[in-house]
Amino acid sequence: MNYDVAVMGSGVVGLFIAYELAHYRVRVIVIDREAEPGFGVSRGHAGVIHVVQPPFNSLRSRLAVEGNRLYDDVARRLHVKVRRLSTLLVARNPGQLIALPAVWLILNRVYGRRGFRVRILGPRGLRRLEPNVNGLGAIEVEGYGVINSFELVSQLYNFCRLNGVDFALGTEVKDAKVLGDGAIIITSSGEYRARFVINAAGLYSADIARLFGDEYRLEFGKGVMLVFWGGEQTKSIVTPLQLIPNPKTKGGAIIPTAFGTTIWGGPSLSIGSRDDRSVNEGGDIDVLYRKFSGLLRDRKFTPIRAYAGVRPIPEGDDFIITHSKVSKRIVHVIGIESPGLTAAPAIARRVIDMLRNAGAELIPKDDVREVEPMVMMKNVIGSGGAIKGDQGEVICPCMGGVTRTDIREAIRHGARTLDGIAFRTGLGMGICQGMCLAGRLRLSLRSWGIDPRELTKSGGNSWLVTR
């Protein structure tokens, strides 16, 4: 099959690139080894829209600022809510307190001139803003945000499909060859020819580059996160002040989420394999408690889940966005780690410019279709809307009421796994962590048009029912 552009990878970066391309008169296919979009790097973060990213002169720092500014407009068009809030860098000891003016001076010089307010809070100001936070003072940086990244991925996917982008999911790239006027991509689902190729394959981006004759090295960093139920612990993102920044991690934070839960995440980064998402209670969880529990006055919250995300760390610890040495028609987007979610809209626009420079003829469409918002039945009921039949039948009560209709809609919009349904609806993501689901799923799957033996947790061999 012939396309103008093939995008390798359907994480948030690949989807944003496809989203931008969907505004032009080009044939686009997105190829991904995972069963559903966003099942790679993009499923393992906390949904934070960042501001501060050292080193301040790095490409990832500059693109994070650009991407941050784009999010409000993109989220409005996709009907995805971004909740804007501040980050507090909290001084816990006298040495950190003394250092606050110097830290403020640096951050204000870098980010204040870019429109992000930076100020010093004394103990009273900190207490007024965050009564539950222990500290002697803090630096407040405005302009951060939290987003439901699962909804973002789903709406990007819905927009792309609505506007003619093809997807080959569950499709592994076996080989690739550069042709005179493009490339041929050999996959587990057949061959695809494309005039231009974008390698945004996340954890596999170095492998894809190697197929085209380009050599890059990645390490794989694992970060562990702990999710709490019981209301938000803070209104802001809260992190201990680091006087010596670590280029590989921003040090982690207490993060209020778009779901009304709280995440503690990211203080340590261990280098391992790209498939290792294990969590060690005696190590990983203990590190989280040691770092963050002392920041809070009231810690009466219930931990409900621990999970790990894996990020691709490139040589040089900076994003690699470049043309292939073999052909300008091949663009590599490699090592997109944190703050990749923040930078993704800016990365996509940068890639579009690179395609133009490589000779791509990008003619804007005059018939771009806008995607409809994702509407949950709890929102319809809450606004006084009428329901009928089994539309109000609740399957998962602890997430505000996920109904049978919500699950049907998730399946209609492309969910083919239990995780795909959960990410689109919140099913099983509350305090029960899915304990209410097994019986209901067994009784209901056939009525949704899916054979129980075909349903997996996240694709591959993650079967839920074997006979």
Short description:
The protein is of the alpha+beta class.
Backbone CA Rg: 22 Å
- Average pLDDT reading: 88
| Individual helix count | 12
- Based on the structure, what is the oligomeric state of the protein chains? single chain
Describe the largest sheet: 8 strands, mixed
End-to-end gap: 37 Å
Helix content: 25-40%
Shape: globular
Stretches with pLDDT under 50, minimum 5 residues: none
Extended strand count: 20
Q: Beta fraction of the residues?
A: 25-35%
Alpha-beta classification: alpha+beta
Structure description:
With 467 residues, the chain is α+β, with helices and mostly antiparallel strands. Helices cover 29% and strands 25% of the residues. The chain contains 12 helices and 20 strands. The protein has helices at 12-21, 59-78, 94-111, 123-129, 149-162, 205-211, 281-292, 340-357, 377-382, 404-412, 418-425, 437-444, and strands at residues 2-8, 28-31, 48-49, 82-91, 118-121, 137-147, 166-168, 173-179, 182-187, 190-199, 218-229, 237-240, 253-256, 262-265, 270-272, 302-314, 320-323, 330-334, 394-396, 402-403. The strands form 4 sheets. Strands 1, 2, 7, 8, 9, 10, 17 and 18 form an 8-stranded mixed β-sheet that branches. Strand 17 (320-323) and strand 18 form a beta hairpin. The longest helix has 20 residues, at 59-78. The protein starts with a strand and ends in a 23-residue tail after the last helix.
